[in-house]
Design a protein that fits this description.
mainly alpha, disordered N terminus
Length: 524
């Protein structure tokens, strides 16, 4: 059992330290708890540009895969496919990986020369973040079948994930050192962080060699090029820009990456000319350096270079072509990507809204379009329009996401009772939905109401908590748990929860405020 799980069990299973004598202002704690809001930023929009599978087709694919499960070793590969599809919807179940690992392990014990079994074992371990074991299993698969492009690609991914894991704490150390903040790192900490950087650079070099080897073995596999795009962009950004370079040098660093990324994008476009994701990726990858510094308002078209405009316009033209497809699902999928691409640019956001309305008219039963439209209107501060779209959405189908978004928007308007009503409606449809539980718990906590129900809501969330849950949700959960424990006079537990939230998101002002309220003697 992971340390994270053990700590959760210790804290939230009822094993609590004795309360310290220091009193806290409980009303101030409740008021400082972040109010629920719609989590949408310019960067969250990019999630629409990452899946090479139309999201509306994923549930049917998962259902078809589940029907193929037959209780044999072959289930390992099927379970991994299901997990991968679930990940594209941000709803992956780690238990699928554990089951796949068990099946693959049993197979390798019985047939140690089965390269596919070793690869499945490595893939399962990688998903569970057991990177050293994953690397070992995949290398075994490669020794047995050195021409497996899938094994080389997965090994490259695992080495890259290991690199990020190795350097996880180094970024904060160098940032604190550069800004000379209170609590600057010691020489020993800087030395350790430097060793982490060297180790990361070594792993990234090996990762790139593996991905290049996969490309040499299977030059027409699109997945290899999309993986390498991500490697070049995020890997180099993390190593060269975020840690080792000042912010002022970041645009120049991305200029160095542009030729490599353009080559891979050109290859992808030739292999998948009618895949909307492939076309939309040009916007994200070729304009990342501009997006990095654009803020939530998006890009200013007038400030883009001729090359950036040309890259952008090429994607827009191709997406508009695909949106005229006779296949209505493909056309609507292209319109969703077109909306995201338009939303990146300040001057074109209204076009993005129009794209989504076209998609809804084309495929009125596809719920993803309604959600994107409501979210985009909300981030444009058109709250009344967003509320109207959610109500329209609910008339098409009573569903959890519409209730959650509508609840959030109503709360922001001060319509607390209506917000609670929609949060409860979401929970009636899906009692374990994490967003709905977080919403209702926050409403009740901020009003100091029904702490017993808050306890049940947070316990429901705790039962699902795992490291694959997005960091923002884990932080909100920990802050809510901390306030609840403080209201229950368990200050030691409250401090632990808020301290953990601060560790996960050090720059979060609300967590810092809660921490100061829980430690008035230190604040003074």
């Amino acid at each position: 059992m992971r340390l994270y799980t053990l700590l959760l069990c210790f804290l939230f299973g009822g094993v609590c330290l004795a309360q310290q004598a220091t009193s806290v202002d409980k009303d101030a704690l409740r008021q400082a708890l972040p109010a629920p809001k719609l989590e949408l930023s310019l960067w969250s929009i990019t999630s629409n540009l990452t899946s090479d599978v139309n999201p509306v087709e994923i549930p049917a694919r998962i259902s078809a895969l589940r029907k193929r499960l037959n209780g044999t070793y072959q289930d390992a590969g099927i379970l991994l496919e299901i997990y991968d599809l679930q990940s594209k919807l941000s709803d992956a179940d780690d238990n699928l990986l554990r089951r796949a690992a068990d099946l693959a392990r049993a197979r390798t014990a019985k047939s140690p020369r089965d390269a596919q079994a070793w690869l499945h074992l490595g893939e399962a371990y990688a998903g569970l973040q057991r990177y050293s074991e994953a690397e070992s299993a995949i290398r075994r698969a490669i020794r047995l079948n050195p021409r497996s492009w899938k094994a080389w690609l997965k090994l490259g991914e695992v080495l890259q994930w290991q690199a990020f894991h190795v350097v996880a704490g180094a970024s904060d150390v160098f940032t604190r050192s550069a800004e000379q903040k209170e609590g600057s790192p010691t020489p020993e900490q800087l030395q350790k962080a430097s060793r982490s950087l060297r180790r990361m650079a070594e792993l990234m070099t090996r990762a790139e060699e593996c991905i290049d080897r996969a490309a040499s073995l299977a030059p027409r596999e699109p997945k290899i090029y999309s993986t390498r795009l991500g490697f070049h962009l995020f890997g180099t950004f993390f190593t060269a820009a975020l840690i080792m370079r000042p912010d002022s040098e970041i645009p120049q660093i991305f200029d160095l990456l542009t030729p490599e990324m353009r080559n891979d994008l050109t290859k992808l476009e030739s292999l998948q000319p009618d895949n909307p994701t492939t076309q939309a990726m040009r916007v994200f990858f070729m304009m990342f350096k501009h997006l990095f510094s654009s803020g939530e308002q998006g890009l200013d078209w007038g400030q883009l270079s001729p090359q950036a405009r040309a890259d952008y316009q090429k994607s827009i033209t191709n997406l508009e072509r695909i949106s005229r497809s006779a296949d209505r699902r493909k056309a609507a999928w292209a319109l969703r990507h077109l909306a995201s691409a338009h939303f990146f640019v300040q001057q074109f956001r209204e076009l993005g809204i129009a794209d989504l309305r076209r998609a809804i008219n084309m495929t009125p039963q596809e719920m993803e379009n309604y959600e994107m439209l409501a979210a985009y209107l909300a981030v444009m501060d058109r709250k009344e329009d967003a509320i109207a779209e959610c109500e329209r959405w609910l008339k098409v189908k009573d569903n959890v996401r519409a209730h959650v978004i509508l609840s959030t928007l109503l709360y922001e308007k001060g319509q607390v009772d209506e917000a609670k009503e929609h949060a409860r409606a979401a929970l009636r449809l899906a009692p374990r939905d994490m967003d709905a539980n977080l919403l209702l718990a926050a409403y009740l906590l901020k009003e100091g109401e029904d702490l017993a129900q808050v306890q049940r809501l947070l316990d429901t969330i705790a039962a699902q908590m795992r490291e694959s849950i997005p960091k923002e949700k884990r932080v909100h959960y920990l802050m809510q748990r901390g306030v609840l424990l403080a209201l229950q006079d368990n200050l030691a537990g409250a401090r632990w929860a808020i301290a953990r939230a601060r560790e996960l998101q050090p720059d979060l002002e609300q967590a810092e405020t809660l921490w100061k309220l829980l430690n008035p003697e230190k604040s003074s």
